[in-house]
Each structure stands twice: as C-alpha cells, then as structure tokens.
Amino acid sequence: MNGIYYYLIAFVIIWILVAIFHEKLSNHGVELNFPVIMWKTQRLRGLISKISNISPKFWRWYMNIGIIVAFGAMIFITWMIISTLPSIFETPSVSIVIPGVDIPGSPIYIPFVYGLIALATVLVVHEFSHGVQAVGENISIKSIGLLLFAIIPGAFVEPDEEELKRAKRTSRLRVYAAGSIANITLALIALLLLSLVSAGIPHYFEEDGIVIDRIVSDSPSEGILKEGMILEAIDNHKVNDSQAYSNIISSFSPGDNVTVQTDQGTYHVTLGKNPNNESRGFFGIQANKHFELIDDSLGPIPWILFELAELFEWISMLNLGIGLFNLLPLKPLDGGYMLEILLSYRLSEEQYKPLVNAISGVMAMIIVVSILAGFM
Prior knowledge:
Layout: H1 3-20, H2 22-26, E1 30-33, E2 36-41, H3 45-54, H4 56-83, H5 112-136, E3 141-149, E4 152-159, H6 161-166, H7 169-204, E5 205-215, E6 230-234, E7 237-238, H8 242-249, E8 257-262, E9 265-270, E10 272-274, E11 277-282, E12 285-293, H9 304-325, H10 334-343, H11 349-375
Antiparallel strand pairs: 1-2, 2-3, 3-4, 5-6, 5-12, 6-7, 6-8, 8-9, 10-11
C-alpha cells in the first residue's frame, strides 16, 4: 500500500478522536476550528526568553544581515520558479514532499525516518527563531504549539498581534525573516557536517558497484527487481561505478526490453516513460554507490558514517528548500509579509496591499499548477 494511505488513515483517526474528546482536550490547550486543529501551550516561553537573552545584540545583528539575505533569497527563489514555467508540465518546479511517500511528478523521495527527523528540525528551528527574535524586539509570545491544517501538520509561535503591529518596521522584518534565515543557517551547518562525514568514508570503504536502494511503486521494476540487489551489468554493459551506471541508463528509450544482471540473478525489465522526460526510458529504481569495508577489524562502527551522511543530507535539503519556499512573495508566507513591509516605505496601505495580494495570487496559481502538473 502506498505510504500516503497510512498518513491519511492516521490523520482521519486524529480528527475523529479530537472531535469525540474535544471538550476534555480543550482543557489541555486543544482547539478545533475546522479545517484546523491546534494545540497551544505556554510552557516553552521561558526557554525562548532565555535563548533570546543570551546575547540580544547578536540576535539583532544576525537578523539585520538576515533581512538582506532573505530579500536576496526571495528574488532568487521567485526567479527560479518563474523561469521553469515553460517546462512546468515536464519538470514541475514545486511538488509536495512527504517522508516515505512517492509523490507523482516529484523526482525526490524522502526516506521515512530521516525525513521525519529532518522535518522536525525544520519546524523547531523555524518557529523557535521567530520566537527568539520576537522576544528580542520586546514582542510578547502568547503561546507555542502544533497544528493540523486538514492533513498538513505544522508548528507555530504566536506573538502578540497588537504588539507586532505597533513594532518598528525593521523589528517586524527581523521577526519575519528569522524563521527562514535559521533554516538556511542550519542547512549550511548540516552541509558542512555532511562534507566532513563524506571525507571520512574513503578512509574506511572502497566503491564496489551500484546497489538498488528503492523500487518506485507501480514502476516497471516493481515485482521484478528488489532492494539490496547489486547491479553488475545492464544489457551486457558492465556497471563498475556510478558514472558508468548513469551513462548506461540514459541511453535507453521507453518500451526497451532491458536485461539486468545482478548478484541475485538476471532479470528482464520493459522500460516505461520517465516522468521528468518522456523521451527517456524509466526503470523505476533508485540506486546508489555500493561500498565494501576495507578493514573489517572495526566491525560495524564505520557504517554509521553512511547513516550520518544521509541524515545530514536530508536536514540540509529540507531546511534549505522549505526555508527558501517560505520566503516567496506570497501571503501568508513570511516572504509575503516582508514584501508588504518593504513596499510600505514608499507606498500607502491602499497601494501596497492590493499589489502584494495580486503578487500572492499569481504565485499561488503557479505553485498550484506546478503541483497539479506533477500528478498529471
């Protein structure tokens, strides 16, 4: 069963339980306002205040730089999405990513465990940073919590709206920029850690072919090839390393009947159309380098390097991707509010609000079309 159904079942159960026990749960901070379930608490406000008070000057200057980086990132991600419009039905620029689920049209598959850990870092770092910066700008935090919008989970830090509105524009810019800048910073830290871990792998391992990590659901290889198989040759072309593998699979077309030789036997696969390029053949496998331990005297300990590398890779990718996405000039994303504040320096409220709403509408349409294009 596709992983998406497990998510749907879990969310249906949550909605049913909250609906049944709503009165009792409301005493513990749970609010039900369809299509949103919210759980609010005030317990972590002290921790946020302590973090903010460690070095208020540092947080302020860090986010002064962050404002500049945020607007630069806003221009970059907006240009990236708009520039892909001509090929939106071939390679959608935006797609939904859910750990452990194959999303049609998305070239990315996020492993369940690593994906959940990475998403947790995204939410915690993003929302805590909003809170830390708000406290530093003397804006009170009313509550912290989790939410479920229909089937989309999230987290939030709720500042005092009146105090936020009365704050200086630079203060509000710092608060809105804080979440995404923290995500981008964490992405860079994770990328550095990934580089350090990857640099250690060649000291303990040597590359020995290609291994199948995953079989895509409903793909030509499903039911034929299996995860863990080591690819030795494809149509009698030796698969010695990742470069050879890439060159070989790029040469096939849809409908080709391909012979795949593995360490577990020889199999035949009739290729389908690649979702991202219909002129190329599609196996429906996700493969990776296969390594052998040079010296087994250390036992299984060196294999932890691969686990750490994959974890840091997903923490970096998801924090960067979601952090940049949140800076799009689209309300209610942080980028939309930042654009509104920036325009307010030159335009009246009657001028900048309709302009930002129009830009938000256009960006929302592009994103929706891109997501739907993946499913189509």
